[in-house]
Design goal:
Length: 454
């Protein structure tokens, strides 16, 4: 029997769910509602100096199967590109230092190789951690709280903050260890942080086996090209500028209130998948899964901006890019040297992107596009020591409320949300707010939701 699935949200999660539903139920009707004027959510690309250039996610983890597998399933495997270099450096007040190898999101397994990166006192603090009383962690804790206590402030401020800031635009002292570093959290029973990092690395190596190949990949025409390919493959009826306002349970399925308020419409559905940000999801689910509302409201978001820049071709010698922690006082929190990192973007120009904005520290985003762009260009020109710092082209892309914050207690909130939604047959929820903010994690969560609904 033909059924109608309504997906609320046309980001990568919603579109991947529509595609998976089509694969599983080829004759169903699939309607995707999107309040904005384009598909893709945070997946977006622009033309920058004649190149397709991502201003959302610009890389996908290749050692987890969902994203690369989806690209290949869509027939686009020949367009996958591996990085030419992944060697990044951290900018500190004393200078620029290569990111130490073998860490778990910046958390080291030993004090080896940290000389210069940390002060002698900081290195000694790391080395002494194995001799501290065994860890006794009862439930989730903040990343920064545990690591400052065990390894000292320098590890958090110089190693962990720049990495977590790049992934989550968040702060180590507020982010959940269980949610952001689940592999490390799972091995805290080893008794020390250093031992837990070693065990997490060993477990990861065993799970990969002898698998080689790149850790990251991208798509030569931009990851932002995937949404259109997904819509075509899903044969979905995508309705832009069509916000959803409420979901109601009926005797035969659901009713979704949608459309502009001046011309409202009620759309019937046999199944509904909510792939909207947490606050919007809370408003939608109040009448059908009320127990999900409070935990959804407990997931805040950080705003940020990406400034894309094209400069005349020049050698910068910065590997794949720079991580910039708050201790530097810099405006930018990271610089990706795309021309060095990705072979298909090298040659005729220097393409660079930089991000601005962290959770609870977003005042710089109040600048105009012109002012923000000029300030970022100046910061990047100084960081990269550009010989020709006048840009050919710049573009500012703002992600207001773009990155969910996995604060302490996040896994319990996610469990409560999924339990409440899962108790309603035919209702699903998925997205970056739950189990990972990267492209593969969003696709995996979409598949999980479709599995549960079917």
């Amino acid at each position: 029997m033909t059924r109608r699935l309504v997906v609320i949200g046309a980001g990568i999660t919603g579109l991947a769910a529509a595609f998976e539903w089509r694969r599983r139920r080829p004759d169903d009707e699939i309607v995707v509602l999107e309040a904005g004027d384009r598909i893709g959510g945070k997946l977006q690309r622009i033309q920058l100096a004649g190149h397709w250039y991502d201003t959302g996610p610009e890389a996908m983890l290749a050692r987890v199967p969902e994203a690369v597998g989806l690209v290949e399933t869509l027939g686009l495997g020949s367009r996958l590109v591996a990085p030419a270099t992944t060697q990044a450096s951290v900018v500190l007040p004393e200078g620029r230092f290569p990111l130490p190898a073998g860490t778990v999101l910046g958390v080291p397994a030993s004090a080896d190789g940290l000389e210069g990166f940390l002060s002698p006192e900081g290195v000694a603090r790391v080395r002494a951690e194995a001799g501290l009383p065994p860890l006794a962690v009862d439930g989730d804790v903040a990343v920064g709280g545990l690591l400052r206590e065990r390894l000292g402030d320098e590890v958090v401020d110089r190693l962990v903050e720049p990495l977590l800031g790049g992934v989550y635009a968040g702060r180590a002292d507020e982010l959940s260890l269980q949610a952001t570093m689940p592999a490390l959290f799972a091995h805290l029973s080893e008794g020390s942080v250093l031992a837990a990092v070693t065990a997490a690395r060993d477990a990861g190596a065993r799970s990969r086996g002898d698998a080689d190949g790149p850790v990251f990949q991208t798509v030569d025409e931009g990851i932002g090209s995937l949404p259109a390919a997904l819509v075509e493959a899903a044969r979905a009826d995508v309705r832009l500028r069509t916000p959803a306002h409420a979901v109601r349970r009926t005797a035969t399925g659901f009713e979704v209130s949608t459309g502009q308020l001046a011309r409202p419409e009620v759309l019937t559905a046999d199944a509904v998948l909510v792939a909207a940000p947490a606050a919007k999801a809370a408003r939608l689910l109040g009448g059908v899964a009320p127990a999900a509302v409070e935990p959804l409201q407990g997931i805040p978001y950080a705003s940020m901006a990406v400034v894309a820049m094209a400069f005349p071709a020049q050698d910068v010698g910065a590997g794949s890019g720079l991580l910039v922690p708050p201790v530097t006082g810099r405006l930018v929190k990271g610089v990706t040297v795309s021309s060095s990192k990705w072979p298909h973007l090298g040659g005729d120009v220097l393409l660079v992107r930089s991000s601005v904005g962290r959770f609870r520290d977003e005042s710089e985003l109040q600048r105009t596009d012109e002012d923000l762009s000029a300030a970022v260009v100046a910061d990047v020109a100084d960081l990269l020591s550009l010989s020709d710092p006048e840009p050919i082209q710049t573009a500012v892309v703002r992600w207001g409320g773009g990155l969910p914050q996995y604060l302490v207690g996040h896994p319990a909130r996610v469990d409560a949300i999924r339990t409440a939604v899962g108790a309603v047959p035919g209702l699903g929820i998925a997205g970056a707010a739950f189990a990972g903010v990267g492209v593969p994690a969003c696709i995996r969560d979409a598949y999980r939701a479709v599995d549960a609904m079917l």
